[in-house]
Specification:
Structural class: mainly beta
Number of helices: 1
Strand order of the largest sheet: 6-5-4-7
Distance between the termini: 38 Å
Oligomer: single chain
Length: about 110
């Protein structure tokens, strides 16, 4: 059975850890938590006969990865150099001097 996100319909989902009492109660009704690695939507999937010990989760499958990549940032002031330090399916972290103003729109090359 292929599991897809209930919000964005992508297949990049993985089993999520149990959070709180509700998740632990729902597992007895065969409802298990999943999280989309694209839009970060958390949802439940019913899987009959499936037990929590059967869940094999690689916590780093779609999580952020530390990297050191050169990037050229382009904004309304022109180009500047930066370094991508953290990369994931949902975004990245970039170090640059001087810091970008909050809400700046930029391009990355």
């Amino acid at each position: 059975m292929e599991i897809v996100c209930t919000r964005c319909r992508k297949t990049y989902v993985q089993a999520d850890r149990y959070r709180g009492v509700l998740d632990h109660l729902l597992k007895w009704t065969y409802l298990y938590p999943y999280e989309c690695q694209v839009c970060r939507n958390r949802f439940y999937v019913m899987q009959w006969g499936y037990r929590p010990t059967d869940v094999s989760v690689d916590p780093n499958q779609y999580r952020s990865r530390p990297v050191q990549l050169h990037a050229t940032l382009i904004d309304e002031r022109g180009e500047r150099d930066g370094t991508i330090t953290d990369l994931s399916a949902s975004g990245c972290a970039i170090k640059t001097l001087p810091p970008l103003p909050e809400g700046a729109i930029l391009g990355i090359r």
